[in-house]
Amino acid sequence: MADGRVLDILSAIDLSVNAGEAVAVLGPSGSGKSTLLGLLAGLDQPSSGEVSLLGRSLANLGEDERAALRAGQVGFVFQSFQLLPGMTALENVALPLQIGRRAAARAQAAELLVEVGLGQRLDHLPRQLSGGEQQRVAIARAFAGDPAVLFADEPTGNLDAASGRRVMDLLFGLRDRVGSTLLLVTHDEALAARCDRILRLEAGRLVVGT
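Below the sequence we write its predicted structure tokens.
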């Protein structure tokens, strides 16, 4: 900053998540939830401290190495869907499988879309889908390749209540089938209650863990 002060977004965070565990991070806007998620996923780098993902320290890994570590092992679901607008639902879900050189990528993608109730929407572009349908495509894409870890950042934030419930039923159902570790950022207490453990952030500090 211009006056020389350093802005601490997160401070004194000590957190471990066990394999197969579902953990919710609750907190108001600006508390540092999304920043924490980005650090744990290796999308951002901390100014101090250490982050390990899938048993590997991220401290000395470059951007390409972190991406290689995530490939095929980490899935993401974002509030804003993050679908590629020029690709169909099928192509969006197949893409991570194709990047990972998985056999029969399109067939696997089609099976996932059927599983999330979009078997009749395979050839639709994102703009031709409702918000809830787009998020279901995003969930199918996140679970392509059966990830060991899933990061979800306010996955129901842009959805109405009914669509949000359906999306979360699908997410937890797929997570139970695959056995993925889940780290869920949300402001929704009812949604957080579906997880094994709840963490609370206030002003960048972990104040409660249950």
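The chain has a mean pLDDT of 88.
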